[in-house]
User: Which sequence fits this backbone?
């Protein structure tokens, strides 16, 4: 496949609250734009849609919803934009995504919902080519500004979420060995901002010239409930 037909890479940044995801995503977008590389930043939840506004109200503790309901709303918010994501990637633009389905599973499963049930609604969504997990302890995250402003920013919740992210890291690594797509890389987010930025760039740089082959699908082929 010629370079003109290469698609954009789908890169997801995940992590605990206050791990620096949004800061690093913005920094990476600026770096790519400075190199005249087409890139689009996508954040989930996307709070601009009808579903996104319901989620925003919930996260700000302005409304209450059943745990199953809010999980399905998060998934629906991703499905709202799935076609747009595919079209953008196929047009050759990198998508840098601040949170994705992995966060949906981690936060809902941390509340006691079955892991497999949490994963099921997102099966067949566009799969990222690279997942960057910014790892930080809940204790360290708590020291950062703005902590506790939203519903899930509680130390015990974040500790459970981190454990579930660890499970997904192991499963994704095992799947990557078999399929060679969907690489998961853990970055030490407790370092200085500059060190984290440098570590991220080392991993991202090989993806910036585009990828050959189709967009893959999340968790297809796995047993579902």
Assistant:
């Amino acid at each position: 496949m010629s370079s003109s037909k290469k698609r954009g890479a789908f890169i997801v940044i995940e992590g605990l609250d206050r791990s620096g995801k949004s800061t690093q995503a913005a920094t990476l977008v600026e770096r790519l734009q400075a190199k005249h590389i087409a890139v689009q930043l996508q954040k989930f939840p996307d709070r601009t849609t009808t579903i996104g506004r319901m989620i925003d109200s919930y996260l700000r503790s302005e409304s209450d919803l059943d745990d199953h309901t809010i999980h399905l709303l998060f998934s629906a918010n991703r499905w709202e934009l799935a076609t747009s994501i595919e079209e953008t990637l196929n047009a050759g633009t990198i998508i840098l995504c601040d949170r994705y389905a992995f966060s949906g599973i981690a936060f809902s499963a941390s509340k006691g919902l079955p892991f497999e049930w949490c994963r099921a609604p997102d099966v067949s969504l566009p799969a990222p080519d690279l997942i960057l997990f910014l790892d930080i302890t809940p204790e360290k995250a708590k020291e950062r500004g703005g902590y506790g402003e939203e519903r899930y920013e509680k130390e015990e919740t974040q500790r459970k979420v981190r454990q579930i992210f660890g499970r997904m890291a192991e499963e994704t690594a095992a799947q990557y060995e078999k399929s060679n797509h969907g690489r998961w890389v853990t970055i030490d987010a407790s370092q200085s901002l500059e060190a984290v930025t440098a570590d991220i760039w080392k991993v991202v740089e090989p993806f910036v010239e585009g990828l050959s082959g189709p967009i893959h699908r999340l968790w297809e082929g796995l047993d579902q409930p």
